Amino acid sequence: MFAALALLALPLLAKADFIEGCTRTAVVKAGDTCDELSTRHGVSTFQFALVNDETVDTNCHNLQINQTVCLGVSGQDCTKIYTVVEDDTCDWIQQQYGIANETLYANNPQINADCTNIYIGEVLCVDTKAFTYPAYNATLFEAVAGSYVPYCDDDEDY
């Protein structure tokens, strides 16, 4: 019985191990959202979604308690972050962190040209070093911006 349960849990615990180059991980707790995990563990929302695109769905609905998720991969792991609050603008964020316009957009490629799609709770990379990310599905990231992101609850599966 316990062996069968252990085999069922193994895919959830091992998912981050299958992400090539994963350098750090976190375990999902009750109440977690993708943005909360990003803030707590120092990873941008974009980076979290990018490295977990095979295991976490578009709106972060399928987080499971005790699931191991990847936070960053070698060479693309921005740990200098800022969580967006009401009335933030890209100009203000750039001034506060001394980031060039090109660097802010390179590290957060989901931000549109007018910076009108950042949302409260989104976690941005504010490193002055520009990271090079692999190609990604822009439609996927646009769908997440401003959407309701549910949390992982003890009593519900997503």
From TrEMBL:
The keyword Signal applies. Pfam families: LysM. Residues 1-16 form the signal peptide. Residues 24-71, 80-126 form the LysM domain. InterPro entries: LysM (IPR018392), LysM1-like (IPR052210), LysM_dom_sf (IPR036779). Keywords: Chitin-binding, Signal, Virulence. This is LysM domain-containing protein. It comes from Vanrija albida.
